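Predict the holo structure. Ligand: alpha-D-galactopyranose.
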Amino acid sequence: MKHHDLIRQFQHIFQSNEQPQLFFAPGRINLIGEHTDYNGGHVFPAAISFGTYAAVKRRPDNVLRFYSLNFPDDGMIECDLSHLVYDDHDGWANYPKGMIQYMVEAGHAITSGMDILFYGDIPNGAGLSSSASIELVTGVALESLFDLTVDRIDLAHIGQKVESVFIGVNSGIMDQFAISMGKQDHAILLDTESMVYQYAPITLDGYTIIIINTNKQRTLAGSKYNERRNECEEALADLQTELDIISLGQLTPAEFDTYSHLIRSSTNRKRAKHAITENARTLDALNRLNEGDLEGFGTLMNASHQSLALDYEVTGLELDTVVHAAWEQPGVIGARMTGAGFGGCAIAIVANDHVTSFKQSVNDHYKKTVGYEATFYTASIGDGAKELTAN
Ligand code: GLA
């Protein structure tokens, strides 16, 4: 949305002639390293050009008013700065509410209420982290409006706490980290155990990253996500009966083969196998990129998808259908689901001159199998959360 349109909408909705400040936080894709971030492993995400915009103005009182152009039926959601608790009725607004509350709890002086207008162009429920994007756009707005100094990684941790404590999905740090720390044309390899990270330039000469939305809403994602997390924790506890480790991410695939018999449940053994092999693939993926070995990178993406399908069991018919169809197309380097799974999006690296036929063929196949269409977007890798200038 154009900046002046956002300002106009703000003034109209909040009946004001004042000029709000504008902010943006992206969504994210993850190139590889899925379901590793709560297992002390590595992830390799990138911020994308789709995201959430916010127009924000301080108020003279302690009232908070939230409005989203994406959820006009929810109307204006109002609450007081001194009483920020989760409320089912507040729907999407629980994300900014939680963010404000936890910024206050982290010791930041939020000294007045605000009017905030949100607009997002991330497809909702597609697994591209629209919720983390709302958290982080709120975070950077608070930072600027109240003149705070907040470390970017701390800001990501506050967003993660909103997700896990305020909302109740016990997610890892990947999404908030990628959105807080993103950099144009770079993916970020992050070690989620030590929080050491490095930027890797993504220059895919002659290739495009295509995002494929299955349009399958991730309805059960929250509960299934927490279930996977528990399974990994049980597997770790079994391994710890003999091994001195604090996370699955500390084991190599070879070590896992030696000790996997310690894991009593065969389901939990498969979950741990995914987490450990995926971590190894992610490290390998960075090396492949650095060596300019795009084919090798693609092969790792494909193996990641197989592991998520067979060992982690988070893909399902829709994601498997688009990814398998993608693998069949000419000019495709690799394809895999991205994000939590259970519906949502996949990504594929496709040669530029095959993109049009790729979309057509994958969509035809998907529609025949699933009964409705997929949606395709071109991913450009953009910056992390930031303030925008009005023009
Ligand atoms: C969701 C979570 C992340 C991560 C991914 C799976 O996006 O929010 O923390 O666990 O799923 O890799």
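The pocket of alpha-D-galactopyranose is lined by residues 34-35, 37-38, 171-172, 174-175, 339-340 (CB under 6 Å). The chain has a mean pLDDT of 96.
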